[in-house]
Design brief:
Blueprint (H helix, E strand, L loop, with lengths): L1 E5 L2 E7 L4 E4 L12 H8 L4 E4 L1 H5 L6 H11 L11 H12 L1 H11 L9 H7 L5 E4 L5 H11 L12 H6 L3
Parallel strand pairs: 4-5
Antiparallel strand pairs: 1-2, 2-3
Length: 171
């Protein structure tokens, strides 16, 4: 199943079993050439997904700018968005002021959410992509992959988080 999402609303769906593009109501839609490459990649097991923070936000995790705003508020800083590079400067400042408070805040914001459901992520995993690339800080994707693998929805993936993992990775 392929979904196209705009403003958290599912616009259309591709059914792998029916090989047709469907709208939300399950009605067959006219052929859409822009999806041909995506459909071909899925069929040929060559799909690589880059999953960004939007998927995590869907499960209640903060965006980086909103997290930085929370940090600024915690430190009682005002109008930080007017500071050039504030998205980098505010976290560094907080860390230098009190690294324990910084780490505690990150732990609370990115607390483990093993049982969190995310419809967008679940639908993406049904495509059974060849690879998934992310820079997300949370482990939502890892938990969803494990759940999908146990349910037989997708294959097992190797996590590569550092150079050492890359060296030890299978094909």
């Amino acid at each position: 199943m392929i979904i196209k999402v705009e403003n958290d609303t599912i616009i259309n769906i591709y059914s792998k079993t029916e090989n047709k593009l469907l709208n939300q109501r399950g009605e067959v839609m006219k052929h859409n050439k822009s999806l041909d490459g995506l459909i071909k990649a899925i069929k040929e097991d060559r799909l690589v997904l880059f999953i960004g923070a939007g998927v995590s936000v869907n499960s209640g995790y903060p965006t980086w700018p909103s997290l930085v705003d929370l940090m600024a508020k915690r430190m009682e800083l005002q109008d930080v968005s007017s500071i050039p590079n504030y998205l980098q400067i505010v976290p560094e400042y907080m860390f230098l002021q009190d690294s324990t408070v910084y780490h505690d805040m990150l732990q609370k914001c990115f607390a483990d959410r093993k049982n969190m459901n995310n419809d967008i992520l679940d639908a993406l995993l049904e495509w059974n992509p060849a690879h998934i690339i992310t820079t997300n800080y949370d482990n939502l994707i890892e938990h969803a992959l494990m759940k999908a693998y146990k349910q037989g929805i997708c294959k097992e993936y190797q996590m590569i988080a550092c150079d050492e993992h890359l060296i030890k990775a299978n094909k």
